[in-house]
Specification:
393 residues, D-Amino Acid Oxidase, Chain A, domain 2, 7-stranded mixed sheet, binds flavin-adenine dinucleotide, FAD/NAD(P)-binding domain, single chain, alpha/beta, 37% helix
Amino acid sequence: MKADVVVVGGGAVGLIAAKTLAENGLETILVEEHEEIGKPEHCAGLFSIINFRRLGIPFSERYIENKVRGAVFYSPRGRRIELDAGRTVAIVTSRSSLDCFLAEEFERRGGSIILNDKVIEICFSGNHTEVKTRKGIVVKAKKVVNAEGVASFLLRKTLKKTTERRMWIPIIQLWVRDHSLDPEYVYLYFEEYLPEFFAYFIPVNDEVGKLGVASRTKLKTKLDKFIKERFPDVQVMRSVSHAVYTGRPLKPDLDSTFIPIGDVAGHVKASTGGGVIMGGLIAKNICEMIALEIMGESESTGYRRRNVESLLRELDRIAIAMKFLRSLPTKTIDKLFKIIDESSLVSEFSQKADMDFQFTSFIKILTKPQNISKLLLASITGSLETSLLKVAP
Ligand SMILES: Cc1cc2nc3c(=O)[nH]c(=O)nc-3n(C[C@H](O)[C@H](O)[C@H](O)COP(=O)(O)OP(=O)(O)OC[C@H]3O[C@@H](n4cnc5c(N)ncnc54)[C@H](O)[C@@H]3O)c2cc1C
């Protein structure tokens, strides 16, 4: 078989890449090892509306399950902060339905999908690359886009590198019913016994929701503890085990014939493990760049290259900031919650913080002179209160 580009992996980022390539007139073949697109579903499917729109995916009731307007954060010692944007800011989707929707969009533009077969080898020869599958299919292509996800088998074999393995954290996500929370918010729990990653609850409606707990150690025990303490009355409907990435992104060589994208390349926000929007935006830019190159317009790729660099820089900064925040003791995290809560910055965060460009938007808010003084005042008041309590009889 022949194609302009082969995409390995039919997860969200692989499908966004494939759809972009087909949209730009390239003959594209996507190979997915599972029998069906979208299964198994290992995602909470929460996306900010503003950045989801930038992916160019039409909004559809076929995959949107719920719409949310804010988030509620619980500190390790029980402080509660509510961010309310006052309007719908994010969608909760069924990832399985979204992936099927993307696959249809890809096929409608002339793309082909090979299911139930696994890419096992990439051979480079002269001006083309051969992609070999387990069932013996060989595709000659000009470029290979590797979106194999956490597996990293081809990345290791072909480029002899991977993401930071110790920064992948095992996670269990449950679909539960009979919660009693407001479905217009998502809920994040920073528990003392879960120092590596917050636990979350993302409502699908006023009955059902997705609950996730991640930990490198004793995951099942910690999940049970979390449910017992926070959601004692829910009924578990189904569950999935996977891993979320919390490390720094790989910087792919954009001129190579084999380009890793999505989770396999760590194109994920280290704060939340979310990789569909940022990974998808990087993939979209890379694939538009590939299309220009194959059409002989390499000199027009500068804008996309700069976009990729800037997205990777944002992910890198989030990863570095998270490494620092995760190293802080519980007491300090709790203090930070208190300072933010009492600095009257909550409404500004609600309105202006960007769920994806977290580093840039947070720094923009935190470095405004009037906000620096609010934060200083809140921290001084907090310290004074603590000192007074200490000396009080
Ligand atoms: C519990 C959980 C909750 C999450 N919630 C969110 C969220 O709310 N928002 C968000 O943005 N992100 C979320 N994420 C992250 C998100 O799911 C990933 O970033 C996203 O799925 C990455 O897409 P991908 O295409 O790179 O990889 P994947 O979706 O993992 O897809 C990789 C695909 O490649 C296939 N494959 C692997 N090797 C081969 C091969 N050799 N040949 C053929 N096929 C192959 C696999 O079968 C798989 O289908 C969550 C992750 C987890 C685990």
